TrEMBL record, chains A, B:
<comment type="similarity">
    <text>Belongs to the class-II aminoacyl-tRNA synthetase family.</text>
</comment>
<comment type="subunit">
    <text>Homodimer.</text>
</comment>
<keyword id="KW-0808">Transferase</keyword>
<dbReference type="GO" id="GO:0070150">
    <property type="term" value="P:mitochondrial glycyl-tRNA aminoacylation"/>
</dbReference>
<dbReference type="GO" id="GO:0005524">
    <property type="term" value="F:ATP binding"/>
</dbReference>
<dbReference type="InterPro" id="IPR002315">
    <property type="entry name" value="tRNA-synt_gly"/>
</dbReference>
<dbReference type="Pfam" id="PF03129">
    <property type="entry name" value="HGTP_anticodon"/>
</dbReference>
<keyword id="KW-0436">Ligase</keyword>
<keyword id="KW-0547">Nucleotide-binding</keyword>
<dbReference type="GO" id="GO:0005739">
    <property type="term" value="C:mitochondrion"/>
</dbReference>
<protein>
    <recommendedName>
        <fullName>glycine--tRNA ligase</fullName>
        <ecNumber>6.1.1.14</ecNumber>
    </recommendedName>
</protein>
<dbReference type="InterPro" id="IPR027031">
    <property type="entry name" value="Gly-tRNA_synthase/POLG2"/>
</dbReference>
<dbReference type="InterPro" id="IPR006195">
    <property type="entry name" value="aa-tRNA-synth_II"/>
</dbReference>
<keyword id="KW-0030">Aminoacyl-tRNA synthetase</keyword>
<dbReference type="GO" id="GO:0004820">
    <property type="term" value="F:glycine-tRNA ligase activity"/>
</dbReference>
<dbReference type="GO" id="GO:0016740">
    <property type="term" value="F:transferase activity"/>
</dbReference>
<keyword id="KW-0067">ATP-binding</keyword>
């Protein structure tokens, strides 16, 4: 990418947001799970409007994406998995640079969330038996509707086809106003249509398979997005790979609650790979079949969703897009004050609001451009039926607005579901403000009399008596009091027995209770680490002319905390003394745990043209996002050069490692260092 | 577990090693993949020999294991996954304590290997297409042989049944010397028997299904231990979950090699979950279906397996068990000097030796008892057929000697296999010491003449000519020279054509080559992180009497680096001033990134009996392995108590966090701190 491309990109980016204000399809489309062909269609729509500048902007987002993607692959941030075998769509490997960025992002995430909020971090199995996802609803509902090309057997997502059709029809200026309104209507609800409704639309519109134009199967069939497998050799024990880490936490809730001293709130965090069998994954690093989630399950008393640290974030202002705004015409995300959004009920609780604020701070701290970050509330129909509220942190990149963090109030849904399915009570307790008197049923079988009457069956009869509910017990009591005996069914014996009045005492007793028991609600911030990383790459990428002005150089402007390598150590010339000095610095950095590169072998050709060589070596480091370069140009002192300003300071050999370490760890800034050393 | 049990354990442990010297089945059995019933059988054998003390020792390892296991589950190091649904054997969840230990172990591992050796750490997909494991041989060979209980359908590993039979028969004192020798013979080779041989043994010995005594299916069938799944909706794209992380590295070799400046050695590391579908996993944390591997693939020039840092480890002495020793009668692991073992060729290369030494240092640094750690060489038959040499770091625990790290020279096997299957050359290059002259075949088709003669077929003819090997080319040349033309088969056309002399020039040219190309060998240290952690738990566990002497208290003697929590902060009494001071300390520790516990709520009952309360709180922390307790007994200064010595020092409130931080990070020892503060 050169300067022209770069400036074009900025032009495009500006235009995108203009267009968004006009409510063009590019936003909702890219924000959702649109695949490339649909995006192309939408982008086509955008360009039609911008006809005057069409020739300039046309290929921009794709060109930008490709330019960045090429560097990311070449510098081993990631590459398609199993590339030598042609790869498998939706699978990516992180190379050394990408893995270091991932570790840095996770380390910051732990600091920002797990440590700051005293969360419990756990690690649960990815392999999961079927019963767990039956209980959670994933077996039934974690599906996409698909149709099949009747000729070549290829599968397509039904909603994507209908969406693509509507968007392309809308571009036809000859359609009536009614038709346009109808298409808008379909687009607004397409993600919520049932198989039958989608099938009907496909028939009505005569939609055929993309490219081939073959007929499509009818009606659309649900395809479960979980990968299936079997435990053990019998083939009878069905399991799934988890599509989220949360269920592992829910089924262990009582363990964690007890470990937390039976107190709420209780926050449990988990970082782990999850697996989703996308029908036809595209969008490279954005829609993967295997990816890393970092999830937090913050359990609260549903009667108290306040958060003691909410005041720390309530003054924050950032782009928010409440559902009412999305439903109005011509609206986009606007800067709102978080405190006000919670006070007005736009965000449904302080705790949800607190996490929205923390997620904002985290992403901006990582290096996400806050002008290209918004919090979009799920529309009523878009939310899971059990959710009380849900906001997505969406980051804009060349693929559009991408959901990178979901912050949902899942209510008590999951714990209730697992309680019911497993028969194990997953509840918390709270002290009542004042003790309460309640009536309690007391059933006391008289074992001696029962033993005489029923001998070996006594135990079953006792258990049956004790298992009566209040109504059964009071009816039995009434019968015994009026008739002196009663027929009583003992299921475990498969017969009725006669119970006499002296065999059981039934009464109601008033007792004082001091606790209430309840199923906690859970607020869940769920971070797609790979998506955040990809957006970060795009936001940090820039180009600038070389000093000579004859070429465009690539720079990743990573913050020192995120950068895969914190510095590079370069002896100015091939010289044993300088190389030894470089090794001393490297050793010190290593013992401080600072990731860096050292280049101690300079080719003869480079020595001939030293200045060019140093410039090239800086450029190579800039392209990798290395924030500092240490040029060893004397045996006792060195030059540190900062990547973005290209400013330099001289530091003694003795001091250089600790100076760079303090900047790499975020304890000092480049400005601090310059002020001290130049001042 | 009480003191008696503890002393019994030591007695048992001593006896184990005595017995081992006598070459009892306990070693090879436990070292391999024996399951619990078989171990019980073996332990039974051990106890028969030790009849005199049988009653004392009998239940010891199981009792110890259960005691430790109970605490590990109660304090949330791990617990069975999906427990509320009855669990799935072979799956474990790490609770907050276990996850912290895991993160600490990984952090030390990275420091010790990745950073120290400048390795590239990568993260590859766990989902893997079939073709990769076809190439690697896993689809064919990553299997266990199993037989089926013909009545209830349960599966059993055939080798375990034969092994169990032989071991139990051997205990019969009435068998002849020949019979005993035969049984020993079978035991020595049981893991290498084919399906037919195992089936024959089962028939010969009349072995039936364990417990049920039902007949078994015949012959044993191989069961592949990889979990299968399908990509996408068609069900045609078979994939597997990786059973090791290594293949992801091999298929990406060229990327990493290029990133490393096309230089060897090149070491690539990967930490990731792997999945093995064990037939009937037992041994809880030792034999899991999903577990974390940390693997290193160190690629070297097969002509140069020296290691520049070998002198750093060559003087180490530790328990080694070469294959020759294992094959002799009555031998056990002996302390050998690593340098000598390499010099004598017992270990086949310096690089392999270097990693053995580093693994030893790593494990001991973690806290593994070096007297219960040995390096056992694979026997010739035990090694993968391609391996040049292989040593397992085995750690002794209540399950016996457990393979925790495998250090193998996999030779060039994997890279060759993927090269061949994918058609992509996976080779490295090296400069020749001196340039070499070689004869090179040069085939130059004369396209003009060929075009005139063959028109549309020209391209196929040209390709066929260029594809000739040396012999074919020289034969064609001879024919053309003698007869002026020749019949020539063009496979892609499915016919012969007539080639005339003017249509192709064939010659040999002398060229100078300065490089040789070769497939690197790979040395692979592969760490089973979960197994190492479990052994560490057992090695760090101990009990001691309470101060009052009235009860036995549990202590995990984790080193500060490994301990899940570095300290606990305890206000001596419930008092606002002390609690505020405790919070100040906690805040400082948090900002230093030091994991700790703080207990600011003391019950009234505890206040009544303060000394007991503090003792109980120490005991609770000791049981979790917390190395330091900070008792806040004044608003300006505190007491630090060390877990193992139970010694205490007073420190100012201001200084305490930094003192604990320096010990938690391994920068200072307790002795350093005591010397300074008491001295």
């Amino acid at each position: 990418m050169n300067a022209t491309e770069q400036s074009l990109l900025h032009a495009f980016s500006k235009k995108s947001s203009t267009v968004e204000d006009q409510e063009m399809p590019i936003r909702p489309l890219n924000a959702s799970s649109a695949e490339k062909p649909e995006i192309d269609v939408a982008i086509g729509g955008l360009f039609d409007i911008l006809k005057a500048e069409k020739s300039v902007v046309e290929k921009e987002p794709e060109a930008f994406r490709q330019a960045v993607g090429n560097i990311l692959e070449r510098r081993l941030f990631y590459n398609p998995s199993f590339d030598i075998y042609g790869g498998i769509t939706g699978l990516l490997d992180y190379g050394p640079s990408g893995r270091l960025v991932e570790l840095n992002v996770l380390s910051l995430w732990r600091k920002f969330f797990v440590n700051e909020e005293d969360m419990l971090e756990v690690g649960c199995s990815a392999l999961t038996p079927e019963i767990v996802f039956n209980a959670s609803g994933h077996v039934k509902k974690f599906t996409d509707l698909m149709v099949k090309d009747e000729v070549n057997g290829a599968f397509h997502r039904a909603d994507h086809l209908v969406k693509g059709y509507c968007e392309s029809r809308k571009k036809d200026v000859t359609i009536s106003a009614e038709k346009a309104a109808e298409l808008d209507n379909v687009l607004a609800v397409v993600e919520d249509l049932s198989a039958e409704e989608l099938g009907a639309k496909i028939k009505e519109y005569g939609i055929t398979a993309p490219h081939t134009k073959n007929p499509l199967s009818h009606p659309p069939r649900p395809f479960n997005l979980m990968f299936q497998t079997f435990f053990g050799p019998t083939g009878s024990s069905l399991g799934y790979l988890r599509p989220e880490t949360a269920q592992g936490i829910f089924v262990n809730f009582m363990n964690y609650y007890n470990d937390n001293g039976r107190k709420l709130p209780l926050a449990v965090a988990q970082v782990g790979r999850v697996f989703r069998n996308e029908i036809s994954p595209r969008q490279g690093p954005i829609r993967a079949r295997e990816f890393l989630l970092a999830e937090i399950e913050h359990f609260v008393d549903p009667e108290n969703k306040s958060h003691p640290k909410f005041p720390d974030v309530e003054l924050l202002e950032f782009l928010m897009f409440p559902r009412e705004e999305q439903e109005k015409s011509g609206q986009s995300a606007k800067k709102l004050c978080l405190g006000e959004a919670v006070a007005k009920g736009t965000v449904n609780s302080e705790t949800l609001g607190y996490f929205i604020g923390r997620v904002y701070l985290f992403l901006v701290h990582l290096g996400i451009d806050k002008e290209r970050l918004r919090f979009r509330q799920h529309k009523a129909k878009e939310m899971a039926h059990y959710a009380a509220d849900c906001w997505d942190a969406e980051i804009e990149c060349s693929y559009g607005w991408i959901e990178c963090v979901g912050i949902a109030d899942r209510s008590a849904y999951d714990l209730c579901a697992h309680s019911e399915k497993s028969g194990v009570s997953l509840v918390a307790e709270a002290k009542l403000a004042e003790p309460k008197e309640i009536e309690k049923l007391v059933i006391t079988p008289v074992k001696k009399e029962l033993g005489v009457a029923f001998k070996a069956d006594q135990k079953n009869v006792v258990e049956a008596l004790e298992a009566m509910n209040e109504q059964e017990a009071m009816e039995l009591k009434a019968t015994l009091e009026s008739k002196g005996e009663a027929e009583f069914e003992v299921c475990t014996l498969g017969k009725n027995v006669t119970i006499k009045k002296n065999m059981v005492s039934i009464s109601k007793k008033r007792t004082e209770v001091r606790k209430r028991f309840f199923t906690p609600s859970v607020i869940e911030p769920s971070f797609g680490i790979g998506r955040i990383m990809y957006c970060l790459y795009e936001h940090c990428f820039s180009t600038r002319p070389s000093k000579a002005g004859d070429e465009q150089l690539n720079v990743f402007r990573f913050s020192p905390l995120v950068a895969p390598f914190k510095c590079t150590v370069l002896p100015l010339v091939q010289n044993q003394q300088l190389e030894e000095a470089a090794k001393v610095i490297s050793k010190q950095l290593k013992s401080d745990g600072i990731k860096h590169k050292i280049e101690i072998t300079v080719t003869l050709k480079q020595i001939e043209t030293i200045s060019a060589s140093i410039g090239k070596r800086y450029a190579r480091a800039d392209e990798l996002g290395v924030p500092f370069a240490i040029t060893v140009d004397s045996p006792t002192s060195v030059t540190i050069r900062e990547r973005d300003s290209r400013d330099q300071v001289r530091v003694s050999l003795k001091e250089v490692a600790s100076v760079v370490t303090s900047m790499a760890e975020g304890k000092k800034t480049w400005q601090d260092v310059c002020a001290r050393l130049n001042g």
